[in-house]
Design a protein that fits this description.
Blueprint (H helix, E strand, L loop, with lengths): L1 H15 L13 H9 L6 H20 L19 H6 L1 H5 L4 H17 L3 H9 L3 H14 L2 H9 L7 H25 L6 H22 L2 H16 L4 H8 L1 H4 L2 H11 L3 H14 L2 H9 L6 H26 L9 H11 L1 H6 L1
Helix pairs in contact: 1-2, 1-18, 3-6, 8-10, 8-11, 9-10, 11-15, 11-16, 12-13, 15-16, 15-18, 16-18, 16-19, 17-18
Length: 352
Amino acid sequence: LSYNDELRRFIAALEVKGHLNRALEFLPADEEQAARAVQGEGLTRPELAVVMAYAKSELKDVLAATDIADDSYLAQQITTAFPATLEQQYPQALHGHRLRREIVATEYANEMVNYMGITYVERMRESMGATAGQVVQAYTAARDIFGMIPLWKAVEALDHKVPAELQMLMMKRIMRMVRHSSRWLLQQRYETVTTQELIEHFAAGVENVAGSLQGYLTGDLAELWTSSQRSFKEAGVPVKLAKQIASTDELYFALDVVDVANRTGSSVEQTAGVFFDLISRLDLHRFRQGISHLDVENIWHSKVREVFRDDVDRQLRILTMSVLQFDDIASAVPRDKVSAWLEAQSQQMARW
């Protein structure tokens, strides 16, 4: 229901700006959209196609007025509009194109709407108070830190090999990971660094966590990860891809792990061990799931749910730092450090 509400608000905003004539495009009025939402229905596919086209056009105009094309990393998006041969043989002419800003803006508008949905950018701008250019930087950083493009392509390559519903589920999991990660990056306010620096800051650590994720997961998290991976493989998804998709919900936390490791001077391995052990020992996974399953009837409920999740994640970061900086135990073994810290916090644990 919340997504239907987002679409309704988005269409209304386009209409107010004079960018869309709802009657001319045969799009339903607000009242009809609300009635459909109550019945569990939304826009039809032809209607969504119209709104998607307008979303891309609107976003392209907004992005063309930003300075994203001046960021050398973001400017590489221009290559997606041309054959690879041109990039190889005429790189200077390509990157010096007189319509460079417009082309970069168009390519980003197409990609973000296609992969992240019609309302993604507007939702990020509203909830995070970010500019469109900042959303592009956060999206690109999240996309490339986690290597999402190859993952999207791998899912698309399964056309006619697995059920379309399964492909949509996999795409939604990737989309959710990029959305949460870009939201996290926007919260941290990395305005003073380039996109290249932002990616380099996190990429190695995230890859480290991804390669050892199975070893960090215990309890419910481990069972959920194993079950998810098994179901994907049984449905015909290649083993490597099944493992990657199954890891998307937990791998999002790698950003927190790398950030805490940098702040405390601990290794990524030790930080990840403490971080995921805390999730298990404090039952935070189930608590976080409870927040995710709260009923959402409108966009305001959705925003509140996001704030709740952000607050839990922030507290988990603080707790991890507390454990890593706890001096009453010499052991470097993450589980031992967590056990000693929990024992010292027995009163607070009893209250929790």
